[in-house]
Every structure is written in C-alpha cells, then in structure tokens.
Amino acid sequence: MKNVNFYVTCIADMAKSNVAKSSVLLLEKLGCQITFLEKQGCCGQPAINSGYTKQALEGMKNLVETFEVNDYPIVAPAGSCVSAIKHYPEYFEHQGLPDWAARSQKVADRFFDLTDFIVNQLGVTDVGASLHGKAVYHPSCSLFRKLGVKDEPLALLRNVKGLELEPIANQETCCGFGGTFSVKMAEISGEMVKEKVMNIMSVRPTYLIGADVSCLMNIGGRLSRENQNVKVMHIAEVLLSQEAA
Predict the structure, then answer these.
(1) What pLDDT, on the 0 to 100 scale, is given for residue 85?
(2) Verdict on whether the full-model pTM lies above 0.90
(3) 3 forms bridges with which residues in the sheet?
(4) Full domain range(s) for residue 110
(5) Strand blocks (E) in the chain
(6) Number of domains in the chain
(7) Is residue 245 part of a domain?
(8) Closest C-alpha to 37, from 107, 137, 91
(9) How far apart are CA 168 and CA 190, in angstroms?
C-alpha cells in the first residue's frame, strides 16, 4: 500500500466537494493509503496571478511547512494548483528568500496531478471504470501546457468501458477561465468560452470531461446558460463510474 498526501484545493473544497471525495476513493481503490493534513490551505494562485506574490508568501510558507511533516507524494485533482506550487521556488527566490526556495523545491517535487500520479507513479491506465456515451475531453491549459500532462488523462479515459471520446475543433484552446482573467477580462473570457461550447456542441456529447475543476465550472456554466443537456464530470468521477451496459 502506497502512502499519499491528498491536497484538496480550495475550489474542490468549497464548490465541488464530490471531486475531492471521488479522487480519494479512486486512490484508495488503487491501493493508496490517504493522509489529509488539516493545516493545508490555499496555494496562493489567485493572489500570485494578480501580482500579489508578496502578500501570498505567508500562505505559501504554511503550505510548505504543512507538507514537510512527511515525505509522501502529494496528489491534487487540479493541475492549476499543482502548477502554481511547482513555481514556488522561483517566487521565493524573487522575494529574497533562498532558504524557503530550497524548502519549497523539496515539497514541489512531490506534487502530482491526479492523472499524472495514477499513470506515471502507480503504473495504471485501466482502473476498471465503465460509463456509456459520447464524451468530449477538455485539456486544461495548466495541465498540459504548464505541467506537460497531456496523454495521461486520455490513456485513462480510453480504457473506460463504453465511453466514446469525440475530438472537436480547437480542442486545446483555452476555455477563457484563467483564474482572475475571467473577472478582469470578462468580455474576452465570455467570447472564449462561447466558442469552446460551440465546438463542444458540434458533436452533441453526453459528457464533458476535464481534470481541472475551474475549467469545468466555467464551461459548465456556459452550457447551463445555453440550456445544453451535457453532464459535466471531473475525470475522477468518470474513473469511479461503474455504469451497467
């Protein structure tokens, strides 16, 4: 049995708790013993992306200290948070804190996106899931551009019995969320997600699947406003599915 720390992320904790629960259950199904360190907090990404790195330092230090208590790998269901934490060393260096940069590097090296961990650390591509219908997978920018996790989610989804993955135009184009970008540049963001939904609906899928909660909330919100009958699912929920034929 492999010991694993689970990093819940703010957005899963506050808005999509089922994603966090599904991630934990999936990891347990694959033989992991989960540790949840209660002092974990926000990774600071919203502040950092808005230029308030100095103000985010205390939260960043808290996260580093929290995960220094053991040496287990740390798994999160959101590539955007993992990506932010992977950049901690350079943020600390820029603030003149080399000791914290070194400490954060050791912690950052242990962080993994859920799908990256399952495929590349556990060596699993078939979790025995089944879900029937057509699906579109949205590759989030943070996951495949910043972390380089591109094939892992697809490898897992291709082994879900009954699931038909449908390609769409401009599949790897940003959905327009981008954290605070969707607030500061709301009009541009709105046009981007509008185009994303248009491309998704061109294949009339049953499901929209992604590995970042924030992107799914953004695209799902647009689908809902357009009254589109598409079920939005995080990949953890899909990989736990046991739908009969």
Answers:
(1) 98
(2) yes
(3) 33
(4) 2-120
(5) 2-6, 32-35, 74-76, 111-113, 130-138, 161-165, 207-210, 231-234
(6) 2
(7) no
(8) 107
(9) 19
